[in-house]
Specification:
about 350 residues, mainly beta, 2 domains, 6-stranded antiparallel beta sheet, 4-stranded antiparallel beta sheet, globular
């Protein structure tokens, strides 16, 4: 008996049996997919929960909605649809709820009862019926800001969820038009002083473009700062780093190959050279109030850093620590200049 993998002629759903090497391989029996929305009152707890613990813990991850077509069955698991879950803590109890993130993609496949999107981030392999729909899966990160719970995937704008029910509120959220491009990072940052959210989108003007959009939003979701820049090639920029005076991007050499883009779209590793893009901002760019200066001072490129692949940036040090380090460096520079001047006088 042959396996039916969610084809139009299939009367049911059966994921491939090979775990790890196929999309959803092993199915629900092997623990590769969940596909079930749940609500559980009073989870089992080992130990004792503090009775004054009152809040929610959110998470999201990829969950295959349907098996891929046979020609796409070796796609990576990260192309699964976003499935959000919440643990709600109150009065020493914890309840659990999970819901699919109802993206445009999810709703289209739900209506068709089969997979309609091809290989990961490859629109040229999609079913013709979904042309023009967002391919975003909202499966990477959940973030709460300006009163909204948002689910992110870096190739599309975020999706807004109800923080109490996890039901989808907006399947293509652009922060009220503040986001002009087609993409937004799954790893925005929050300024601990102002409450601003800083984010960016790469390939922001379409697939394979070298345009990067950078913006910040205040704690009410209003855009406070915005700019565009170009990178040398359309490489993956999964995460970034933010300090009081800098925004730094690592342009990973996992780039769009323009030659077979129509026939067989793929991303290939470039030479093992990563280009670090450091975007220098005025210190008060991330401040608030009248008289604030917008715009960046300059872009500094660091080339020939031999790093093959980096996904996440680690941000350490408080503002005071950064200032102390900067003051120490300036002090050492002044001392060095005086010492060099004394040496020249003796000569």
């Amino acid at each position: 008996m042959s396996e039916q993998h969610g084809s139009p002629e299939s009367s049911g759903v059966l994921f491939p049996s090979q775990p790890m090497v196929t999309f959803g391989g092993g199915g629900s029996v092997g623990g590769a997919v969940n596909r079930a929305e749940m609500e559980l009152i009073d989870c089992e707890v080992e130990g004792t929960l503090p009775r004054d613990l009152d809040g929610a813990f959110y998470r999201v991850g990829p969950d295959a909605q349907y098996p891929k077509q046979p020609q796409h069955m070796r796609d990576i698991m990260f192309d699964g649809e976003g499935h959000a879950s919440m643990f709600r803590f109150k009065d020493g109890h914890v309840d659990f709820r999970s819901r699919w993130v109802r993206t445009q993609r999810w709703k289209a496949q739900r209506a068709a009862r089969r997979s309609l999107f091809g290989m990961y981030r490859n629109p040229f392999t999609d079913d013709a019926s979904v042309k023009g729909l967002s391919r975003g899966t909202a499966n990477t990160q959940v973030f709460f800001h300006h009163g909204k719970l948002m689910a992110f995937k870096e190739d599309s704008p975020p999706v807004v969820l109800d923080p109490t029910t996890l039901e989808t509120v907006n399947d293509y959220y652009t922060f009220g038009g503040a986001l002009e491009g087609e993409t937004f990072t799954a790893h925005p940052k929050i300024d601990s002083d102002t409450g601003e959210l800083i984010g960016f989108g790469y390939e922001a003007k379409g697939l394979g473009t070298t345009d990067v959009e950078i913006l910040s939003l205040d704690k009410n979701g209003k855009r406070t700062w915005h700019t565009w820049m170009k990178v040398p090639y359309a490489g993956m920029i999964h995460d970034f780093a933010v300090t009081q005076s800098h925004v730094a991007f690592l342009v990973v050499p996992l780039a769009v190959d323009p030659l077979p883009v129509v026939v067989e779209f793929r991303r290939r590793a470039q030479q093992p050279v990563v280009q670090l893009v450091a975007l220098f901002l005025e210190l008060r760019d991330f401040g608030s109030g009248p008289g604030r200066r917008l715009g960046f001072r300059r872009i500094v490129w660091m080339r020939r850093c031999v790093v093959r692949f980096v996904l996440h940036a680690k941000i350490t040090g408080s503002k005071d620590t950064q200032r102390a380090k900067a003051q120490k460096i300036r002090k050492e520079q002044r001392i060095n200049r005086r010492q060099r001047a004394k040496i020249k006088e003796k000569r």
